[in-house]
Amino acid sequence: MNYEAKEVAKFVVNYANSKGKFVNNTMVNIILYYLQGFSYICYNEPLFKDDFEAWAYGPRIPKVYTLFSMFGLERIRPYNDVWDLIFYNKVENIDYREGFNERIADFLEVNVTNLLQYTSQELVTSTWKKGTAWEKIYEDGRKNVIPKSENETMVEIWNEYTDQEDREEIKRILETFNRIINDLLTLNDEEYICNILQASNEPLHL
Fold it and tell me: Looking at residue 16, what DSSP letter applies?
């Protein structure tokens, strides 16, 4: 896939705001981290080309972090472009799916919805677990790159995301979702696709 992390971050921010959900800089970066892992699981390739770095409070993509740094730990407002952020422009009725094909937009909606149920601190803590990619790469005072080229490293995100007893069930749901979306897109049955997405929106557990 040829997306950039900033494009996916924009989806996360605008989708969260459209649903009345809080999202800040820390949350966006860690949500991107999980989305990258899920992309490997569902599609056997990264969602975007950018590298993560192992920072003290979890994985970060430097240019995404910098883009939203003006907000600190506060909610990031919806935006169309960087000037909306800089000049505090009020924007409404944003099409957060713009720029993504239907399959990827649906994939993002389902997984971002689930990840937004957690607080910033819960997301950070989930990346600190013993044996995770972040824990293996992180060094105090350094910002080491977490290699996306290593499938083993990225698939470890799967282990960070959920408890052991839930993994097989969640993987089954994701695989079913991916197969159904592929089939239904050829039918162009939007109402049925919406029903499937709503049925897939069961909470996942960190």
Answer: H
pLDDT tens figures, 151-189:
455 556 556 655 655 656 656 666 665 555 455 444 444
Distance from C-alpha of 81 to C-alpha of 77, rounded to nearest angstrom: 11
Which residues, 6 or more positions from 156, have their beta carbon under 8 angstroms from its beta carbon?
37, 131, 132, 133
Q: pLDDT tens digits for 37-64?
A: 888 878 888 999 899 999 999 999 999 9
Q: Which of 50, 58, 63, 67 minimizes the C-alpha distance to 143?
A: 58
Strand partners of residue 48: 3
CA 120 from centroid of its chain's CA atoms: 13
In the block, tokens 């472009």 appear at 81
Rounded Cα distance between 156 and 131, Å, is: 8
The secondary element (H helix, E strand) that includes residue 66 is: helix 62-67
Cα separation of 18 and 154, whole Å?
A: 29
Nearest to 133 by CA among 145, 115, 121, 142: 145
- The answer to whether 49 and 142 are in contact (CB under 8 A) is no
Name the DSSP class of 78: P
User: Does the pLDDT at position 75 exceed 80?
Assistant: yes
